[in-house]
């Protein structure tokens, strides 16, 4: 792999590994690194007169960053500082997607990076599972996150599940495409599924189960292969069920047995919808949901609600209906590509997960990773 793509992939991976760290230094380090890489690309492209690669994926993060600037300039944000920070986050999401489009046009670089991502996801799945049972709430058995259900470097187990949702389709495709390593990739996929079950993520477990069915179906539809070629993927599913049973379904089953398992999330979503109705034009300001929410709260459990647990409802409340429409356009683009290529199923699954959780809101590093992955996948498409 060339130096720039390797540095880019390493920076995104470092962001994921450091996202547990409190304070701003971890993601600021990633932002500084991205700024340097963007400068390197600008110099090289100017000297070499390299052609520019654009994609519809760039519209949403660029538009979102500009929307935050507009909210601050128009005085629409009730918390301008938070809106400024959110606008910067969207800007760097644009940067990572743009750089991935430029640097991963070569098939060799792109395929090596995706193969490395599978191994990275598998290693995190093993690490997170062992850590979950031997040192709950600690990263590398040393750093206490304060969250007993933390998984690996992910403070929030549902965000860990969202990460695995992006990697599992790649592992399943490896099991289907590479006969010599089918069982190896199947084992990796099984470990990923079992780790999410052990974490207790209901939406994550459901989406991974759906991916295990959808990816082989899409692969067979496009390759015309026989049903026998699906054996490794089927074996991976049964192995995942066995591993999950061995690890224990306790946390996941306990959540599913609750009388109203989605009660709190439903109240937060309804309050967010009411907020969006109050300000359908410019919204309350990107990043300002936690400040505006108490006036619309439907219950009080004594805890501080920092996010809506529904990114789509929160985007509507913070940015208004035009902002929501912008991101729906992104979802439509990703969804259409997922229908034509199984590699896109992972990014599409995260957008579905965002209906019941907040994978894009909690830590900036995951948003950078998601846009980097989609940019990398889009780099292989014809203009």
Q: Which key phrases capture this entry?
A:
single chain, mainly alpha, two-stranded antiparallel sheet, 1% strand, globular
Low-confidence stretches: none
- Could you report the average pLDDT, rounded to the nearest whole number? 88
Helix-strand category: mainly alpha
Largest sheet: 2 strands, antiparallel
Number of beta strands: 2
Instruction: List the helices and strands in order.
Output: HHHHHEEHHHHHHHHHH
What's the oligomerization state?
Answer: single chain
Number of helices: 15
Shape type: globular
Question: Using only CA atoms, what is the Rg?
Answer: 21 Å
- Kindly state the percentage of residues in helix: 55-70%
N- to C-terminal distance: 23 Å
Tell me the strand order in the biggest sheet: 1-2
Query: How much of the residues is beta strand, in percent?
Result: under 5%
Could you please describe the fold and organization of this structure?
The chain is mainly alpha-helical. The chain has helices at residues 3-17, 25-48, 59-73, 80-103, 107-134, 157-177, 182-199, 202-223, 231-247, 250-256, 263-278, 289-292, 311-340, 345-353, 364-378, and strands at 138-139, 143-144. The chain has a two-stranded antiparallel ribbon with strand order 1-2. Helix 1 packs antiparallel against helix 15 (364-378) and helix 4 runs parallel beside helix 15 (364-378). The longest helix has 30 residues, at 311-340. It is globular, with a radius of gyration of 21 Å. The mean pLDDT is 88.
Summarize this, please?
The protein is mainly alpha-helical and 383 residues long.
């Amino acid at each position: 792999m060339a130096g720039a793509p390797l540095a880019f992939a390493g920076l995104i991976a470092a962001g994921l590994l450091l996202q547990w760290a409190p304070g701003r230094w971890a993601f600021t380090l990633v932002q500084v690194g991205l700024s340097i890489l963007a400068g390197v690309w600008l110099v090289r492209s100017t000297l070499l007169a390299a052609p520019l690669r654009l994609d519809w994926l760039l519209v949403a993060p660029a538009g979102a960053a500009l929307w935050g600037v507009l909210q601050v300039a128009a005085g629409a944000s009730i918390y301008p500082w938070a809106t400024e920070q959110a606008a910067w986050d969207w800007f760097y999401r644009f940067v990572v997607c743009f750089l991935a489009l430029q640097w991963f046009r070569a098939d060799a670089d792109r395929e090596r990076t995706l193969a490395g991502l599978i191994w990275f996801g598998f290693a995190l799945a093993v690490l997170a599972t062992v850590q979950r049972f031997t040192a709950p709430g600690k990263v590398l058995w040393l750093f206490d996150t304060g969250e007993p259900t933390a998984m690996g470097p992910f403070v929030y187990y549902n965000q860990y599940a969202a990460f695995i949702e992006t990697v599992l389709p790649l592992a399943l495709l490896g099991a289907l495409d590479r006969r010599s390593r089918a069982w190896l990739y199947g084992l990796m996929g099984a470990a990923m599924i079992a780790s999410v079950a052990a974490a207790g993520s209901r939406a994550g477990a459901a989406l991974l189960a759906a991916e295990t069915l959808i990816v082989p179906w899409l692969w067979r539809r496009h390759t015309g292969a026989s049903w026998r070629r699906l054996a490794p993927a089927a074996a991976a599913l049964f192995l995942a069920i066995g591993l999950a049973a061995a690890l224990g379904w306790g946390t996941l089953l306990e959540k599913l047995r609750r009388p109203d398992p989605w009660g709190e999330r439903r109240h937060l979503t309804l309050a967010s919808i009411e907020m969006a109705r109050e300000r359908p034009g410019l919204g309350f300001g990107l990043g300002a949901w936690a400040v505006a929410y108490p006036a619309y709260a439907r219950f009080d459990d004594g805890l501080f609600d920092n996010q809506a647990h529904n990114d789509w409802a929160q985007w509507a409340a913070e940015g208004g209906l035009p902002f929501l429409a912008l991101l729906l356009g992104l979802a439509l683009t990703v969804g259409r590509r997922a229908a034509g290529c199984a590699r896109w199923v992972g990014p599409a699954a995260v957008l579905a997960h965002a209906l019941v959780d907040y994978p894009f809101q909690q830590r900036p590093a995951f948003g950078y990773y998601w846009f980097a992955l989609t940019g990398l996948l889009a780099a292989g498409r014809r203009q």
